[in-house]
Amino acid sequence: xxxxxxxxxxxxxxxxxxxGLERYQDVPGFSEAxxxxxxxxxxxxxxxxxxxLFPLNQKGDQQGVRYENGTVKLPDGFVDAYKQYVEGGxxxxxxxxxxxxxxxxxxxxxxxxxxxxxxxxxFGITPGLSHGAYNALMLHGSEELKAAYLPKIVxxxxxxxxxxxxxxxxxDLGLIRTKAIPQEDGSYTITGTKIFISSGxxxxxxxIIHLVLAKLPDAPxxxxxxxxxxxxxxxxxxxxxxxxxxGVEHKMGIHASPTCVINFExxxxxxxxxxxxxxxxxxTMMNSARLYVGVQGLGLAEVAQQNAFAYANExxxxxxxxGVARPDKxxxxxxxxxxxxxxLLTMKAFTEAARALAMETALKSDLYxxxxxxxxxxxxxxxxxxxxxxxxxYFTDMGTEVxxxxxxxxxxxxxxxxxxxxxxxxxxRIAQIxxxxxxxxxxxxxxxxxxxxxxxxxxxxxxxxxxFVEEHRNNPEMAxxxxxxxxxxxxxxxxxxxxxxxxxxxxxxxxxxxxxxxRMFALVVFAHIWAKKAAIALQNRDKDPEYYEAKxxxxxxxxxxxxxxxxxxxxxxxxxxxxxxxAKL
Length: 585
Ligand SMILES: Cc1cc2nc3c(=O)[nH]c(=O)nc-3n(C[C@H](O)[C@H](O)[C@H](O)COP(=O)(O)OP(=O)(O)OC[C@H]3O[C@@H](n4cnc5c(N)ncnc54)[C@H](O)[C@@H]3O)c2cc1C
Hints:
9 strands; 19 helices; seven-stranded mixed sheet; binds flavin-adenine dinucleotide; alpha+beta
């Protein structure tokens, strides 16, 4: 049976020590989220995830969702769990009090999301999408739409979903065919078919609010002609709208999350934002959803890692190469073997640094919304813009990698269903594809984020990282962390420069190296995170030697064994795209 224990100590380390939240007590809303309240919320979230959601995870995977005459039934126990989730006030957590929210900071929500993704990824998809819909409506909806729909989305009584994809298009949304015809009463009639709609139909909420991309009759060609509409399954007067589910997909993982075909048959909808302004409005939802999907990778990596560590300590096979470790046993636990240790440390180095980056990005989002200083808000926005593709793509690539490593640590038992680890590998895979494939994230990084305003987004990473190296230059204990960080920052600068220049001459050179560049960027961001954690550990190690020594050991492993990957990535990037583009395929 798989295990999951919420990593409360790790959340507290990140919030209190790594992010130093007490520095932000003057920011509106932050003092309310006191250390005591944070701790209470983490404990309660942990209880809910460990005791309610986690026990449903394997059962939900085995039973799956059931499609019956236009309705979709979630697996046994899921509707009740959702009820408990709503009663516990979880959906309203980080929402605006004007619409019934609790106004708590987003970084606490991020911790809750990670725990939910670890405990039961399928369950988490509905609330995750609802929060994205909430964000899009908050920012782009009219006052009337907000007043009518937000309060029940905030409580979780209604859910929000995202309707972009159609049979002929997913990445290239300029090809959508769904039509919106204006009506005299100011509404629109929406007609078309959307596929792969997560939680497009389910039996946990009374209503489902679809945010749908469609084209107006006078729409220009391509993405410039896309508009966003709010289309409820049930209208406010209680009558059923023309929104029908004609089936669910059978798929590799997330079996307890319905992936639906939704037909809009002259459904009544309302414009969000301005005509043809749909992509901008939808990007709010997608950006929020991209961070959330990144955290799916992290959540799965955490639970996979926990199971791998437990198994590696208990499974005995062979003897340690340097001498018997456990003479009381017929063989040593596999955790003594270098390759198993490499796998475990790779998982740990990823999950702990990823958690810090996820929480930092959520904190920046809070500061962006709440900080009185315009310059701080602008910097936070630039940080989020830069990190969103990295977080989405690297976290989900690593979610799959870590789940696979956990399976490898389990040997044959990893491949069979009973131990639960193969489910993590199946569930993790989709996160590399939806919310914009990871290849598209890499194009976003090099095409939009790298060149923006002559590298202004990049400064949000390079400047603090260089300043950190400078600050610790004369500290010999930090040299083993700052030297590699400095060296690899240099490689990343070289790659950025090369891509920036070559992209102008030959766009294939830039696009051909984009995935490698994103990974290289992520590795150097993680090196900065591990160097910062090492500095904290060195300062505090007397307080709790075991805990902080473990941080130093993982930081060392990252610098020695993972960060050098940037060298081959740099070489491959600067080899250009000829060998890709001139090959006859
Ligand atoms: C389980 C599941 C749940 C989903 N949930 C939702 C949902 O809730 N709402 C929703 O609207 N959609 C949803 N989707 C759809 C998902 O977002 C799309 O599948 C995804 O965006 C990719 O689109 P596509 O499948 O059409 O692939 P394509 O766009 O056909 O892409 C195929 C391949 O080509 C690559 N490619 C395409 N264009 C380019 C380019 N210009 N440059 C480089 N490479 C390119 C892609 O990276 C990919 O590798 C879901 C899908 C699944 C499977």
